[in-house]
Each structure stands twice: as C-alpha cells, then as structure tokens.
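Q: I have 71 residues here and want to know how they pack in 3D. Can you give me a structure?
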Amino acid sequence: LAGGKLEVRLGSPTGQLLGETDVKAGSMGAVTVAFRQPVSGQHSVFFVYTNPGAGQKPLFALTSVQFMTEK
C-alpha cells in the first residue's frame, strides 16, 4: 500500500476540512485523526484519500471507524 494523506471532511469530499493525518506506506495499524474544532448535530462525513505520486497503486485500506468525544 502506497500510503498518503487521510482527510476527514464535512458534507462533501470538498467540504470543510475537519482533520487530516499522514498514513505511512505499508502501515497496518490504527490511525487517529483529531478534529480541528467540535462538530455537533448529524452530518455526512467524507474520508478523502490523497497521494498524487501513487499512480494506480492502492493508498490504504479502511476497515473500521470509531468516533470518540472528549469530556
């Protein structure tokens, strides 16, 4: 897997950027994306994968998502 950047966006693939992180090539572990600001209510959330240099290689695989709140 080529790795790349994982962006979390609100409302559409080009919507407000909530958070982002780099995923290293060949990485198999958990990845954490901290949101830049709190979000409330019910929204569509889009996970956008980018790596312009990867060509046709798969970037990474997403097997599960967990949202957590800070107290």
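Q: Anything worth noting?
A: The chain has a mean pLDDT of 91. Residues 4 and 51 are 5 Å apart (CA to CA).
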